Amino acid sequence: xxxxxxxxxxxxxxxxxxxxxxxxxxxxxxxxxxxxxxxxxxxxxxxxxxxxxxxxxxxxxxxxxxxxxxxxxxxxxxxxxxxxxxxxxxxxxxxxxxxxxxxxxxxxxxxxxxxxxxxxxxxxxxxxxxxxxxxxxxxxxxxxxxxxxxxxxxxxxxxxxxxxxxxxxxxxxxxxxxxxxxxxxxxxxxxxxxxx
Length: 196
Description:
The protein has one domain: Flavodoxin domain (Rossmann fold), CATH 3.40.50.360. By secondary structure, it is α/β, with parallel strands linked by helices. It is built from 7 helices and 5 strands. Helix content is 42%, strand content 16%.
């Protein structure tokens, strides 16, 4: 069983709330003996476009290959102006060619994959993002089960906050441990065909 987290933080080098929450979720996958990889999108050259391969220097084909070889696919994003990050939007755009294949009557290459969503922010907007991404999952053949999202909205995550990684993890472990466990359990049960 393999899981992949497509991390949509915009921060290359500074502390990222979304990256820390994703690492917290990886720990829950490890407790279930699931291999989980985080792909920090901002560290790759993902060219703009709506096809699977945009030519020389494009890192997307390698990332797509990892997605296709995973059982569980998680989009992890901060909230920016009520929406998912530009990095996650690029993923949605680059997966559009797979949607084109579905429109042509072909079976989705993502058929049978299970999806999850991770969100961080300091104010409301999570429900809107979950609606956007789950609608996209539905359109490309990824199944989004109940309780398969983890959203942390907290002022300690606001832009410019001096919250440390230790403080973030203390918040996540103290208040979101059960939610993360439920999310991972749901993803695994649906991926194994044990619908509850």
